[in-house]
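Memo to structure team: turn this sequence into structure tokens by end of day. - J.P.
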Amino acid sequence: MKDEPPLPKPSAPDPNGGAPFRAANEPLRPKPTAPDRDGGVPVRSAKEPPPQTRAPDRGGRTPAGAADEPLQPKPPAPDLAVRLKQFALRVIKLSSSLPRSQAGQVIGRQVLRSGTSVGAHYREARRSRSNAEFVAKLGLALQELDETQYWFELVVEAGLMQPPRLHDLQTEADELISILTTCVKNVKRRESSAKA
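Reply from structure team:
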């Protein structure tokens, strides 16, 4: 029989009753993710999030098979300020890719001005001292978004760029208009309910 290396000594328990500490000569072992051969319990890394399962319904019943189906965590939604900045960066790339013709340069400057000012108005709105000022600043941002969409339409209709290249940017502008409009409506609704 071949000489096998000796098994490492088991970890000594922590004198304070905590988890065992590793002896200096004991090799690092990865934490098990499934029950080990000795019947141990699976260990989850401290960095690993707990698995999510479907919540029981109002009657306390869990849907069939739902307890063992982990849910995928939703990716965090980007902050609106970050999203508006990304929109502005995309508009900058668009304006620099327009043709160097007179029409391309004029429209490029206009779309650059309106598309990059939306995020600036939103940042100003976040520093507002009153709800009225907040609504006014968001109103300016909405006006700039609407103007930007107008320039997008002209870019396509003038033949300066193919429609598929602008589709995602136009969709993003539509979504941002919806978000900002909802913000304005929510503030106005809260104001009216506070007065009532």
